[in-house]
Specification:
It contains 13 helices and seven strands. The chain is of the alpha+beta class. It has a seven-stranded mixed β-sheet with strand order 2-1-6-5-4-3-7, sandwiched between helices. A hairpin with a 5-residue loop joins strand 5 (about 260-270) and strand 6. The model is unreliable at about 90-110 (pLDDT under 50).
Length: about 300
């Protein structure tokens, strides 16, 4: 009788070799996500267990697949940590340059104690988006799939985290609060102008090159996939948005249209330092909406 275990064992051995080739990078990702060497090792080990049980015959990019798995494991751990209101993580051990590629050695040097302190002030999704995009150049669509939001929302998470990291100082929280209030005022004024049909007020709030994008679900409901220019965007919203509510969408000021208490359409706004709206993303996909957090702003 033919022994079928030998081919299976060889296949698992080859898979283990491919995993080991990615281990150093996976640990670098996990350690920057979690800030704790022991938890980083646990996350990498969980990635191996999931790989050994998965059917990866159709996976063209194993490195990307593994990065996604490790990131999701880390996100779950960060959310669990936040739910328990744990104290900030301990400083990670320094990774030996001789034990990793040059690019990872540079990353190890880049995340010093000061940066780790700032990272510990970020929410789980912000931290993941910043680490993956700014440290490992993972595209926003891939980050969106991990976090469970739209690419535009993932970009905003990274941008918000980047502002915190770059401007870390004693008054960082005050600056963030002021910026949030400024952007809230802009969105509130935009909704008021839209409801009132005030075309001139809409134009004043829009950057000349503003872009309005709708996801596939929004297009199916009749929205244009892409509208460019202040005049065209103002025409799109003029006299509308009557049922839309001012809301925080993943912590950023935006607009939400709901039906019977269920979010149906979200509008994410990008606002420049001059207070002009440079982009609006219409999100109607139910799965994407389910992954976003909403807080209606009243008063």
């Amino acid at each position: 009788m033919t022994d079928q275990s030998q081919p299976a064992a060889r296949g698992l051995e080859e898979l283990a070799e491919r995993f080991e080739a990615n281990r150093s990078r996976l640990r670098a990702v996990a350690q920057r996500m979690l800030g704790r060497p022991d938890e980083a090792d646990d996350a990498v080990q969980e990635a191996w267990l999931r790989l050994s049980r998965a059917d990866t015959d159709d996976v063209a990019n194993l490195a990307g697949w593994l990065t996604t798995v490790v990131s999701r494991v880390c996100l779950d751990m960060l959310r669990s940590r936040a739910a328990r209101r744990e104290q900030p993580a301990e400083l990670p051990e320094q990774v030996s340059e001789a034990a990793q590629p040059e690019s990872e050695a540079l990353l190890a040097d880049a995340i010093g104690p000061a940066l780790l302190v700032v990272l510990d002030t970020l929410g789980p999704s912000e931290r993941l988006a910043f680490v993956l995009h700014d440290m490992f150049a993972v595209p926003f669509p891939e980050i969106a799939g991990i976090v469970g939001c739209s690419p535009a929302a993932a970009r905003q998470l990274a941008s918000r985290a980047r502002r915190r990291v770059q401007g870390a100082a004693a008054d960082a929280d005050d600056d963030d609060t002021a910026d949030l209030a400024r952007r809230r005022t802009v969105v509130d004024a935009f909704l008021a102008a839209s409801r009132g049909g005030d075309f001139a007020a809409l134009l004043a709030l829009l950057d000349p090159g503003v872009v309005l994008r709708a996801d596939a679900a929004g297009v199916q409901t009749g929205a244009a996939a892409l509208v460019t220019g202040a005049n065209a965007v103002a025409e799109t919203f003029c006299g509308r948005a009557r049922a839309a509510q001012l809301a925080l969408i993943d912590g950023d000021p935006g607009a939400l249209w709901s039906m019977n208490g269920t979010p149906r359409v979200a509008f994410a706004f990008r606002i420049d330092d001059a207070g002009r709206i440079t982009a609006i993303d219409l999100v109607a996909d139910p799965d994407t909406l389910a992954g976003l957090s909403f807080e209606i702003i009243t008063g």
